[in-house]
Design brief:
The protein is about 35% helix and about 15% strand. The chain is of the alpha/beta class and about 290 residues long.
């Protein structure tokens, strides 16, 4: 940063402090968190709809996931058990906010893939312990439907493993469809929740495209539900925030999940305003 830039930043900070804007921001953040907590208590944890046996949402909690995915993952594996306790997740950024970071604290192991070399370098710094113990492999790769299984082979992924989490903000549908030689027991995939059940939406495939910040991305829950049927998976939940859908391989369902396993039953509208990280700011050293 130039000398002028540093001076400008110092003046900005001083002005904010003079006007007590930092204190105002802090009070507003606390108020926002209280409102979110009250909303969750009333509309999720205490709501009759989510006390039904087919709803996993009442188990939601957030450790390192974006919303309440950590809790749903824990409850799914409490019901079906684990095998090799191996996960694959891509689109992990620096690993601080993922669906599998919490599993590393529970002696799981797995593969992370991210398109940014900078992110992979940060992961190798912050997760050096589990990487050295062969608990985590982190590789850089811009994921497409054409290369996903090559990346799995590069990461030495077993043919069958416990958890796959897909979050690349664009071609998620096509990448899951392209995974045919590997059979994860549970799949988490982000869906586009502005499209309601009955609407089959999938963004046009472009292997070079990334999310452009608009609604033209990913796929509707209806489209993913139908893809799940084709691939032999049942839709068992969606996060209350309307972000992630959870699928369990149909040979594992038995009487552990009641259904109906449909988009209509498990659809959640977008509630992105719920995004916040309660407790201490996240920092990982594993």
């Amino acid at each position: 940063m130039s000398r002028f830039g540093k001076l400008k930043e110092q003046l900005y900070v001083k002005l904010r402090r003079t006007l007590y804007l930092e204190n105002i921001d802090l009070k507003m953040e606390k108020s926002n968190q209280l409102q979110i907590d009250a909303y969750l208590q009333k509309n999720l944890y205490q709501h009759p709809r989510y006390q039904q046996a087919d709803k996993l949402n009442r188990f939601e909690f957030q450790a390192f996931s974006q919303f309440g995915e950590d809790g749903i993952i824990q409850e799914i594996f409490r019901r079906i058990g684990t095998t090799n306790r191996y996960f694959v997740e891509f689109g992990v950024e620096t690993g601080v906010e993922t669906n599998s970071t919490y599993l590393l604290y529970q002696d799981w192991k797995g593969l992370w893939i991210d398109g940014s070399e900078d992110n992979i370098q940060v992961i190798h710094q912050n997760f050096s312990g589990v990487i050295a113990k062969n608990k985590l492999t982190a590789i850089q790769g811009f994921i497409t439907a054409e290369n996903i299984e090559d990346l799995f082979r590069k990461g030495d992924v077993p043919p069958e493993f416990d958890l796959l989490s897909i979050d690349i903000d664009r071609n998620d549908y096509y990448v899951w469809d392209a995974i045919t030689k590997y059979r994860p027991r549970v799949v988490i995939i982000e869906y586009n929740s502005i499209f309601r059940p009955g609407c089959h939406f999938v963004v046009d495939y472009d292997p070079n495209a990334m999310w452009d910040g608009t609604s033209n991305t990913s796929a509707s829950l209806e489209a993913l539900y139908q893809l799940g049927i084709k691939k032999g998976y049942k839709l068992v939940a969606s996060s209350f925030s309307g972000v992630n859908a959870f699928f369990v391989r149909e040979d594992l369902i038995a009487d552990k999940f009641t259904g109906p396993f449909t988009a209509e039953n498990h659809f959640e509208a977008p509630k992105y305003f719920l995004y916040h990280t309660p407790g201490h700011p996240r920092k990982v050293r594993l």
